[in-house]
Every structure is written in structure tokens, then in C-alpha cells.
Amino acid sequence: MTSNLTAGLFKLGFQALGTVCEVQFRTGSVEGAKEFRAAALGWLRHFEERWSRFKSGSLLCQINAQAGLGPVEVTEEEEEVLRLCDHTYRVSRGLNDPTSFPLTRLWNDAGNRGVLPSQGEIDEVKELVSWPLVERGNGEVFLPRKGMALEIGGFGKEYAVDQLIAFAQKFGIEDCLVDLGRDVSALGEPPHGPYWVVGVEDAREEEAAAYRLAFTGKALATSGNGRRFRVIGGKKFGHIIDPRNGWPAENDLLTASCLADDCLTAGILSTNACILGTEEGLAEIERSHGVEAILQSSTQTHYSSNIHRYVLGS
């Protein structure tokens, strides 16, 4: 943890959730900064240990291993994440289904082999994707069909951003910027201005910022297939899968960056846009209260009605 003592700005850099993270915050004492740091990193560590599909001993892996066999006990704290699964499924109208991991696994295997899955294979795996089938209650969760599997990659990082902002508020920190792999939330103001300034990456040019957004009291999330994809038979297939047909989402949209009151909402809408495509995705964003967006396609950029209020230089 480093600090700018003149401004009272502390910067905390670390790796978590498979990405590079940074938290900037201002507080009146080094001791207070250390307490916040310990609480935030402790929560993140525990969250990852319980919900990462890459940790064999995690609760998530236990739930998946018991699919079709028997229920797994969950605490009230763990039940909160399952409620978020339900919320994400409902708000996204099923486009973000926490049980879609079998499809992700199928397409990952296809990418490794360089061979497209057959329609029959896709249809068979689709039978395992249905959040409403998941049984919850009495401190237990059960995936009723063998082969079903949960993952929370569709909202986990955004949820963690919101949680760290909540931790900052709990510790009396009024000025804070949380950045977990470019999912960002801002509270208060930085040392030298009323707004935090966050770059939106150019989807068509790596390591370049296409826009700079100035905001506070809001969160920014970006989803897209422009950087993350599989190549099968010489064709690119993005990492975002449409659970309705079992295929990777295919449209001209490279990235969707959404600005909302919380990072979870921003993430749901940005991912939805990448599945729905530019026209339908932007229409959904326009219907969502307090949400703005920048959608970058392969040939042009599309904007929500009031995003210019946040774009520097517009």
C-alpha cells in the first residue's frame, strides 16, 4: 500500500479474481487505512475461496460435484450469493444464467480441440442450463441434474466492486475509487477535482483509451468479445455465450460500457447488450433508469442519450 501524504490518498494494488486490481481512497490516518485494507482484502480472499471455480475446494466446486447426487449445505452469507444468482437471472431475463457453465465448458473444449461442437452436443448441454431448476431452501442448495454446474463469472467481479465500496462507507471513507479489472465504482471525489476520471478502452485499438468519463457516485462495467475469443476453424467465437441457442453471441458489437448506480447493474446490462446486439441492447439501456452507455461496434460507436454529460471533451 502506497500513499500520497499531501492529499491523504492511499493506493492499494493487488491481484484478485484473476485480474489486476487497485483501490484508491482518502482517509485521515494510516491506522484507518490499514484497517480498511485488511477488511477489504480479507473479504475478497474469503469470497474467492468460496466461489471460484478454479479452486477445487471451493463451495462452488462442491455444489457442482454434487449435481444430481445430493444437496450441499450453505450458510446465510453464502445464500446471499445464491440470491444474487436469482436476481441476475431475473433482471437479465435469462440471458445471464448462473447455470450456463456447461456451455462455457463445451466451447472451451471446442476451442482447445479446434473443432466445432455438433448441434446435437449443444442441444444436449443446453438441457443442463436452467437456473429455475436449482433447488434452494432450509440452508441447502441442489443441482438436480448430473452435469449441471454453477459459475458466477457473469456477476462476481461487479458484486465484489459494490461490496468494497460498501466496506469503504462502513469505515467512514468518503472518497474512494475501486477498480477490479476495469469494473469500477467511484465514491466522493479525488484530491484534485470534483469527479474521478476513468478511461474507456478503445475496442478497435489495444492499450488506447477511446473516451474519458468523469463521474462520482456511479459505477462502470465493460463487457465484450473484442479481446476474449476462441478461434475454431479459422473463425473467431467470442467468450460470451447466448444461453438461448447455446452458441457464442454473434453480432457486430465489440464492447459495451455501461454507467449505472451500482456495478452489478452496469455489468448485467453491458453483458446483455453484447448478446442482444447494438440496437436491442441500446434500447434496453435507454429504458433503464439512470443508466448510460457507450457501445463500440466493428465500424462505429453508439451512445445513450445522456452519456455526453460524463464524457470529457464532449
Description:
The chain has 314 residues and is α+β, with helices and mostly antiparallel strands. Among the domains are: 84 residues, ApbE-like superfamily (T-fold); 120 residues, T-fold (Roll). It contains 8 helices and 18 strands. The strands form 5 sheets. It has a 9-stranded antiparallel sheet with strand order 1-2-3-7-8-11-16-17-18. It has a 3-stranded antiparallel sheet with strand order 4-6-5, with no helix packed on it. The longest helix has 22 residues. It starts with a strand and ends in an 11-residue tail after the last strand.
Structure, briefly:
With 314 residues, the chain is an alpha+beta fold. The protein has 8 helices and 18 strands. It has helices at 30-51, 59-65, 76-91, 101-113, 119-126, 156-170, 263-276, 278-287; strands at residues 2-4, 9-16, 19-26, 72-73, 135-137, 140-142, 175-180, 183-187, 196-201, 209-215, 219-224, 229-232, 235-238, 241-242, 247-248, 253-260, 292-297, 301-303.
Q: What is the highest CATH level, the class of the domain at 195-314? A: Alpha Beta
Any idea what the CATH architecture of the domain at 195-314 is?
Answer: Roll
Q: Compute the separation of the termini in Å.
A: 35 Å
Q: What is the percentage of strand-forming residues?
A: 25-35%
On the 0-100 scale, what is the average pLDDT? Answer: 92
Helix content: 25-40%
Radius of gyration: 20 Å
CATH superfamily of the domain at 195-314: ApbE-like domains
SS-based class: alpha+beta
Tally of DSSP β-strands: 18
The fold-level CATH name of the domain at 195-314 is T-fold
State the major sheet: 9 strands, antiparallel
Stretches where pLDDT is under 50 for at least 5 consecutive residues are none
| Strands side by side in the biggest sheet | 1-2-3-7-8-11-16-17-18
In sequence order, what are the helices and strands, one letter per element? EEEHHEHHHEEHEEEEEEEEEEHHEE
User: In DSSP terms, counting alpha (H) and pi (I) runs of 4 or more, how many helices?
Assistant: 8
Anisotropy-based shape: globular
